[in-house]
Structures are given as C-alpha cells and as structure tokens.
Amino acid sequence: MTQVPRNLQTIEAHMLELQSLHPGASGDFTGLLNDITFAAKIISREVTKAGLVDILGATGEENVQGEAVQKLDDYANKVFLNCLGKRGQVCIMGSEETAEPVYLPVSQGSGRYIVVFDPLDGSSNIDANVSVGTIFGIWRRRSDRAHVCAEDLLQPGRDLVASGYIVYGSSTMFVYTAGKGVHGFTLDPSIGEFLLSHENIATPFSGHLYSVNEAYQNDWSAEVREVVGILKGGRPGRPGGMSGRYIGSLVADFHRNLLYGGTYLYPPTTDKPAGKLRLMCEAAPLAFIAEHAGGYASDGAGPILDIVPDGLHMRVPLYIGSREDVLWIEKKLSAAGDKL
Ligand code: P6P
Fold first, then answer.
1. Which residues contact 108 (CB under 8 A, 6 or more apart)?
2. Share above pLDDT 70 across residues of the chain, in percent, rounded to a whole number
3. Pocket of ligand 1, candidates 67, 250, 269, 319: which has the most ligand atoms within 8 Å of its Cβ, to mutate?
4. For residue 248, what are the domain limits?
5. What is the pLDDT of residues 84-105, one digit of tens each?
6. Domain co-membership, 188 together with 241
7. Ligand 1 near 270 CB (within 6 A)
8. 339 pLDDT more than 60
9. Where would a tag sit more exposed on the chain, N or C end, judged by fewer CB atoms within 10 A?
10. Does residue 5 belong to any structural domain of this protein?
C-alpha cells in the first residue's frame, strides 16, 4: 500500500512560515516569491518537453551579451517578465537577456522590490539535454515611492533580501535563501508542487571538486594557472588534489558543488579581462546563497557580495564554493595583485 507521505511541506507553506517571523509583513515579498515559483513551474514544463515541441534551437538573434538567443531563453525571459510584478510588488526588473531594465509604474502597488534574473543560464546546452537553470536576486527599493531610479537597481549583493536558483535537471529543484538558511525544494510534477527536500543546506567547508574551462588556460594569468595547477595537484594540508567536473552550465556546476563540496572558477581571460559572468544576475545571487550555506564567493580580490555594480550587465571574475578553498584562491590571487 502506498505510504502516506509525512511532513511534506510545499514551498508556499515554507515561505508563509518565513513571513510569520515578520508580524508586520504585508505579504508582498511572499507574493513575489510565489510569482517566481509559478514562473519556474512554467519554464520547467517547457524545458522538460523541449525535444517534443518546436522550441529547441536558436532564434537567430543575439542578446545584449552578443550571445545567440536560444528559443527557450526567449521563452523563459518572457515568462519571468509576464509573471513578476502583476501585483505591484516590483518596481524594476533586470534580465540578462535585455539591454535595459524594465521600470514598472508603482502606482498600483508597493513597488517595494527589484528583481534581477538570468531566465535560462547555460541554454546553449539545451539541445543536448544538459541541465540548465534560472538565477534570481531580490533587492529592496531604496528611494521613496515616487522616484524609482538607478540607485535602486545598482545595489551590492550584500543588500540582497533573497536570492535563489532553479536547476532543470534529472529533477527540477528550487533553491533559495531569504537570509534564514538555504533550502531546496524538488518539483513533484504529478501534483505541480515544489516540496521541501533539502532543508538548511550547508556546503562542505572544503571540497574535492573544481569546475573550470581549462581550454582557456593559455589566456589566464600565470597566477591563475598556478592556482588551478595546485587545485589539481594538491597542496600542503590538502594532498591528492581535486577532481575536475565542468558541465558548462553554471547553475548545474554550482548546485553540485554546493551539495558535495567544490569550487567553480571563471577567471579573467585576455579577451574577457573582467571575466564572463554577470555580477547582478549570476554572481551576486549565487554568492548570497553560497555565504548563507557556509561557503564563500570572491572576484579574486575580495567578496563578490561587496561589489557595487556600475551597471546591470557588469561582469566579474568568479571563484565560488567551499569557503576554505575559495579563501585560499583569493589569498593566492590577491597576493599577486591579480585582476587578470
Ligand atoms: P564557457 C553559460 O553560457 C555560462 O554563462 C555559464 O552557465 C557557464 O558556466 C559558462 O557560461 C560556460 O562558459 O566559456 O566555459 O563556455
């Protein structure tokens, strides 16, 4: 006989529990998280059946990053833009796929939040059925109600109210933090609910995996080459070295390293001196997750979370994962004064 499920908790119930910790809460924040959850379910539905409908491949267009836009990129971006802010909680939306932020009239609601997202990261892998993901960060508006401005958008990761990602893999998982632990929810497609499956995720202090595209090693600085060589070969106190695991999909690499212990690296290269990854819609939200799970994220000189963006699409080098390993990398690179 089917076992009666025990202690099942939906993501909505989890978010309401969080809200109950703030007696004066308006419900706007919970409503915004629920809108993101709803968008994630819609995207998951399309991603998991992508091979069966005409939604694979590229649109033939390029995004603001100069990258080929996949049909599912475009779809996921439209889903987020349409699902968020319906109830007036959002005053600005920023997407990795669109050059300019979207400023929403705050007339019909509190307009209290800013949401920045990468609607479908790693999408070049979709046609090969490799895991892809969505990343989002939520900040609180700083200016007064009438005058939303760039100052509200360009905030450091340290000021995030919440961040998270959805990984569309062998299962669809929604992982988020609102500053009180990092929690993972697995989608049960048969009932259309994200159910709590990984409560209070704590990433190992040191890891045995490193994730980097070594095809670029000739374009790295000598210091980065030395660091990666030591990660592979071992160092005093960490003999044996690490194993390489690189999917080419940041959310999938980050998620595996978060659970198992490991470090993801995207160093600067000669043609990308600031690195490839975007601060606001990739590095900062994942750094917020990493730190709340006991890990750390650096640009090679200091904490990702302390970097104040100079624009929505600002790029940064990224070293993120197990705290001991990322701090060791930062110490090595900052000693060398390395930014490239
Ligand atoms: P490369 C995908 O385009 C992405 O932004 C991340 O998801 C991924 O980790 C990285 O770029 C892969 O970049 O240069 O190794 O192909």
1. 88
2. 91
3. 250
4. 209-339
5. 967 889 999 999 999 999 988 7
6. no
7. no
8. no
9. N
10. no
